[in-house]
């Protein structure tokens, strides 16, 4: 994977509440951890930036169905459900991006965060993106990144979909591809 283009890895919302046993579990959500760990190690070894986004909701927010939103309570600040999956690589060099701090849905890692300016300050031109869930936060992060002028590689084997409607994951991948993202696998990243 030799390139003169400065890359960053964006690991989207691999949190306990989105993994099996969580309050908003993505089917097989924990299966993204091994390929993401491989990518995290590769990026850190090269000295390229790694970011982990997380939902970091207050206890009461319009994002939750109890207060008019679409989703069950999940990823409430400072709870076990909001913690990253314990098998996901942790390292002090990884930057954490918290989103969803208020009443806005904030599906994208760029929504109401300073991720864009952090990436520009690091002179990043291309993003490699994986995580949860393909059809919501991953898709929105990829589309926002493309809209901000970044090249994007979405890592298909490092994401899983919620699939509220059958085929949502496939439609999300098609939408990302149509918008200009390259759909790759971790093997393509070697």
What does the radius of gyration come to?
15 Å
Helix content: 10-25%
Strand order of the largest sheet: 3-2-1-4-5-6
Distance between the termini: 5 Å
Number of strands: 6
Notable traits:
4 helices, 190 residues, 25% helix, alpha/beta
Note down, in words, how this protein is organized.
With 190 residues, the chain is an alpha/beta fold. Helix 3 runs parallel beside helix 4. Strand 1, helix 1 and strand 2 form a beta-alpha-beta unit. A 6-stranded parallel sheet has the order 3-2-1-4-5-6, sandwiched between helices.
Summarize the structure.
The protein is α/β, with parallel strands linked by helices.
Please give the structural blueprint.
Layout: E1 7-12, H1 33-46, E2 50-55, E3 95-99, H2 115-121, E4 126-132, H3 134-147, E5 151-160, H4 168-179, E6 182-184
Parallel strand pairs: 1-2, 1-4, 2-3, 4-5, 5-6
Helix pairs in contact: 3-4
């Amino acid at each position: 994977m030799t390139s003169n283009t400065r890359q960053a890895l964006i690991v989207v919302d691999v949190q306990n509440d989105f993994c099996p046993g969580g309050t908003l579990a993505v089917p097989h959500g924990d299966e993204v951890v091994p390929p993401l760990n491989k990518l995290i190690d590769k990026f850190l070894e090269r000295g390229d930036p790694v970011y982990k986004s997380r939902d970091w909701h207050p206890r009461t927010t319009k994002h939750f169905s109890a207060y008019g939103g679409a989703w069950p309570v999940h990823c409430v600040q400072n709870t076990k459900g909001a913690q990253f999956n314990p098998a996901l690589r942790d390292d002090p060099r990884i930057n954490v991006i918290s989103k969803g701090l208020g009443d806005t849905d904030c599906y994208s890692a760029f929504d109401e965060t300073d991720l864009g300016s952090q990436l520009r300050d690091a002179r990043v031109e291309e993003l490699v993106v994986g995580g949860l869930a393909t059809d919501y936060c991953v898709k929105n992060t990829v589309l926002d990144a493309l809209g901000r002028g970044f090249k994007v590689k979405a890592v298909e084997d490092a994401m899983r979909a919620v699939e509220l409607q059958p085929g949502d994951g496939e439609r999300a991948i098609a939408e990302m591809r149509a918008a200009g993202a390259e759909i790759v696998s971790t093997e393509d990243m070697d």
